[in-house]
Amino acid sequence: MVSADPWLPNVPVAVLPPPTADTSGDETDDLDEEEEEEESDDLDQVAQPVVIQRTTRELHSMMHEAELDINPSYQRGVVWPDTKQRGLINSLLRNFYVPPLVFATRRDEDGDLTKVCVDGKQRLTSISKFYHGQIPFDWKGKKYLYEKSATQRNKLELPEDLKRLFSKKTLTCVEYPELGDDTEREMFQRVQLGMSLTAAEKLQALSSHWADFIHGLEGQYLAEADLLTPILPNSGNERGRNFQGIAYMVYCCDGFPSQDTPNAKSVNNWLVQTERLPTDGFQSRIRQMLATFETIASDSRYNWCFVANGLKRNVAPVEFIYIGVLLFRMQTALPGLNDDFSTKARAISCLRRLLREQWVDIRTNTKVVKTCWEIITKIVKNPSKFLEAHFDSDHQITTPPPKQKGKRGQKRKAEEEEDDEYRPTISRRGR
């Protein structure tokens, strides 16, 4: 059968078999090892999924009626570029193969079933954006919007027959009944076979007591509308970065007096540990530290320590981590200063300024981390003496000198601005 629609080419319509699994990766190797180790009838299987065809209109409605959550905590952000989003719309209208969506069902607080997107967020986001006129359907050199806003009067609108056609297009939905949080996260990690997860996203997808604690802190202090968010590097641009920053910070606080450099491997091992769980007392102290951080960042009497040359400046990832460590150490060792936000703001200013005076490349590496700890140790030992010697009320946080302007310099600058994986030097954590 072929399409008879005059707008579309005669593309054969066929039900394609699912793509063949990649048997070259670690996942298959792990399964082979399990089979060799022990023969057992217990495969620890998840429940059999239900396969349903849902129209784009139905999926769009489910997203906007809160029946389908495409943003569980382990999900990544919107990473598809505009061209790839438009390509999906083209594929749907022209009957090209689109991989299945993977959902899990959950019960909310009222006992009602809702669906969670385990795989397919990029596709669902593209569909939603098309319905809202945010991306066009490209056809024969022209761009057609599904609907136009008042400011888009000069744009072409998709003809009604194609609107009806798109609304009836279906996607295969593989729906698992109540997997449980741990299994959802594992399935999310298993299906990420396209764009690889960043180090931050891999950490965020972990499930453990420590990870739950970090997720709670992220939700309380680093939500999109919260007060800490504006000072964070690239905040909101990439899912997982806020979780990574808090995880590294809490890892360093928990590991004191060890002063090793945090890295993805060591923090991952720490998050999944089961031998030692976060105590109520430790959780309370961390929340108190973050509340202090939030007060300083949001109060105009103190947040000048995040200002450079009269303008707000995002802190570097390593600064965010060790400002938290500084506040945690002052809170623990100097309880008499717990309500002295002015002194703590001056201490933050000194940490940032001295760090920039010594290093141009402010990154989470062994040299910079060592300097952070040296400054923190001196502040905690005698804050009044240290601030008297190093704090200058007229001294602003200086901007590093410009990098070289060659191709290598431009590439380096882009890497520094992103700093996705913190690029620390790996070290063994002493316990």
Automatic annotation (TrEMBL):
Pfam families: GmrSD_N (PF03235). Residues 69-167 form the GmrSD restriction endonucleases N-terminal domain. Residues 1-14 have a biased composition (Low complexity). Residues 24-44 have a biased composition (Acidic residues). Transmembrane segments: none annotated. InterPro entries: GmrSD_N. Residues 1-45, 392-431 are annotated as: Disordered. It comes from the Eukaryota. This is GmrSD restriction endonucleases N-terminal domain-containing protein. It comes from Pterulicium gracile. The lineage of its organism: Eukaryota, Fungi, Dikarya, Basidiomycota, Agaricomycotina.
